[in-house]
Amino acid sequence: MKSTEKNKKEDDLMEKIVSLCKRRGFIFQGSEIYGGLGGTFDWGHFGVALKNNIKQNWWKKFVESRTDMYGVDAAILMRQEVWQASGHVAGFADPMVECEKCHSKFRADQIQVETSNASGDASRLACPNCGGKLGEAKQFNMMFKTHVGAGEDSSSISYLRPETAQGMFVNFKNTVDAFHPKLPFGMAQIGKAFRNEIAPRDFVFRAREFEQMEIEYFVRSADWEKYFEYWKGEMLDWMEEVGIDMGKVHELEVDKEDRAHYSSRTVDFEFDFPFGKKELFGLAYRTDFDLKQHKLEYIDEEAKEKMVPHVIEPTFGVDRAVLTILLSAYTEDDSGEEMRSYLKLKPNIAPVICAVSPLLKNKLELVEYANTKVYAPLKAEFGKVAWDDNGNIGKRYRRQDEIGTPFCIVVDFDTLTDNTVTVRDRDTGKQERIKVVDLKKYIQEKI
Length: 447
Ligand code: GAP
Hints:
By secondary structure, the chain is an alpha+beta fold. It contains 14 helices and 24 strands. About 35% of the residues lie in helices and about 30% in strands. The strands form seven sheets. Strands 3-10-11-17-14-13-12 form a seven-stranded mixed beta sheet.
């Protein structure tokens, strides 16, 4: 395929995902009715469900099923000393250029990549909006600044956290004192992070408000390489488990000059997004940088030795995970009379496990049967069960396909006499008759 055709196809795919997310109630533009607020998104019913499933799956694998991990849910607002010590006040910045004519602002490093791709000449930089001259690049600190309390002076400055990691480092001592863990052990947190991105773009890929799932894994310095490799494997396993297309995942050894100030080694997991190969998640060796900056140490009670552990940090963006899972799951099937698009989500990740429909919504006996004998017991068992009686059956199937619902169950007139229902499989479109008494077992087996 020619590269222009390929680019068009990829642009179309992004458009299809964005429009599906709005149409089916997954993700909306933030503050939409007031014209939108760049880099912010509001999550609708199915988006929240999908996001929760991803977070729960992550928490189960990395916290609940292990014996060496301690959960944290730290405050988003922290004292400014935290961010001074971590190096974020001094150095959490991107280079910004401003057009002298239309005053649009761009990230200098991104504009260089794009201009050099388009023209092959990175030195001839012009404003992508109006062609005007771009000014000198300046460093722009990406932390959102605010004030805590009634006074607004330098002592009341605080920041919305740009990474969840520091909330764990500042609770290192609390965790050690409360649980007396032996090395190696980890701390894990899921929560919001905020970055005043100069150019938020590509839907939820680069947002100003987003969520992270992070682990700080504390090891002896001599062991860091072993655990770096171990966590690489764990990260890849999880990606596969939640349905990310592994054929599109690549590992990138990040060059020294591109690494964060705290990292001595970083591997980025990149994904082939429709807008290019970009960072999905990251794995960093943060050395003993953060604990030392916060003047924290660990006492090995057996060896009676004081030391500063080293840190391996697997980090995952929730919003990038959602986008990647949606892109991996989106499927078009044009083998039938009309084109069918569906989300081939893994059942453990899908926002709805099954939808229950009475064949006709104005036939009371069908509605009553479907509600009391099918929907209510399945809802009680699985929770993520939808009632769908809107439009004809074909429309309901299309809707549930786009939500990614693995099974649609229909109660029809035969059900009233033989107590069987039709179960339609999302991926194959095939239908089978299943006894109502066997439904729970049938679904349980499939998921
Ligand atoms: N604690 C390390 C850290 O924050 P990072 O590479 O800056 O490292 C970690 O961010 C992850 O957070 C990224 O791999 C990505 O998944 C996600 N992320 C970062 N910036 C983001 C943004 N502006 N919008 C959405 N997700 C973002």
